[in-house]
Amino acid sequence: MDNARAVLPAQEGGPEDVPGAAPERSGRGRFRRGRRGGSDGGDARGALWRGGRWDPYTLSAVLFCVYAAVSLTRYRRMDSMSWDLGIFEQAVKSYAHLHAPVADLKGPGFNILGDHFSPITALLAPFYRLFPTPVTLLTAQALLFALSVIPVTRVAARLLGRGRGAAVGMAYGLSWGVQRALDFDFHEIAFAMPLLAFSLEAVLRRRWAAAMWWALPLVLVKEDMGASVAMIGVVVLLRTRRGRGADDREGGSEDGAARAYAPALVAFGVAASAWEIRWFIPYFHGPGYDALNHLDGDGALTGHIPAATAVRTLLWILLPAGGLLALRSPLLLVTLPTLGWRCLSHYPENWGTGWHYSAVLMPVVFLALVDAIAALGAVEQDGSSGAVGGGAPGGPRPWQRAGRRARGLTAAVAAGAPAATAGAALALCAQLPVAGLTHRATYTADARTRAVERMLDRIPDGATVESDVGPLGPLVRRTTVYWIGGTQGLAPQYIALADASAWLPDAAGTAGRLHPGVRYAVLAEAGGGVVLRRE
Description:
535 residues; mainly alpha; 3 domains; 5-stranded mixed β-sheet; two-stranded antiparallel ribbon; 7 strands; 50% helix; globular
């Protein structure tokens, strides 16, 4: 009974309940749709709201505003965490002008496809052409994350009821993995979030064709996602092997076709990742490509990851999503490729709880939790109806009574899990980026930031600039920017540093040592930063 529908309390309803009619339990333990009641359009629209049909979309809209506020206020304060936003903006800027995706921050003329296989970011090019600013990328990421909330909330409400569905959706939307990704500027994994969520929603609803079609574009997000596509194919195979027959209205008639196509999806995912890693990326990278480079911290091997760190991260991934309950669902197989390459890494940041690496696991573990709770509710229902030893002569045996009590306790825990996960997510928010939105200072740039911005305004459009993290946002859209120390012998026209503490008081001398034979003079100095111009 791993795919039971609406097995927890019926009185809460779900987004599939039709307004104006009470749900009617069918012989299969699901709810049938009633007939639409009433002819007044206003009453029907009100019933839609009361029935929770719009809950997923309302929650998604609210969280979009939260996500956008976190990202855009950080950008306004010139508080970016790394150079990644600049790298992706350079690639999207190239796409927008119909050029190869060059990211000069990785090296002069470096094609970003030689670093990661993420051509899906080209979808942002038309919007960037209209609005050439990193705000476009940050807003797009907030929208993509918010879209992923819709299928998670929708299927949770369908299987568990309206209240529990909203709780799961909120817990997912505010989960630490999502917030850490927002805190770390922009990454291509933003596209993976809705694709994974819609695909696994379709799995839970036994809509196999939709599940596989949603999975296919994942191979364009990043080179490791092909393995995740393969795992979705494996999950489809497992589910269709235990299908409930051709008379099942929600997928049984499609099980045979799914069993035929799922192995092809597995093969496609594996082949896509292998082709991207072994041929495509090395071709654009050029000589010296090392497939393990990112696993070793871009060549800075730092030793094996301590087992305690790995265990801690695994617990952080599972516990906020219902703990060990999610382990009952085969959907967790989809997490294995991401966890696998992180286990192989020698770079601590790849296996910690910071940065963006856990974001793609969040929709999987929360939907696995939904799947597990639904299945546990079905087991309890079957047990209470005598399916497990209830009809034995002389009544149930002691071990059968103990088994029933254990199942009842497990089902009770499962029923309360959505509320618990939502409570845990809200409690953790005090230590996560969303908490910053409660502080007035979050929404304003301080005097130092404004001084650095005025200093950067003195760099003309079209110039070549060598920069640290701070100036990347204001400069990438209008200049050619290189990473400080990464110009590969090219002497840029300007050097811009938001934090020049290691350069002062002799910034010109430090610049001369960085670029022997070239003289630089200080053009402006403000807020602890400095701009130098080549003479």
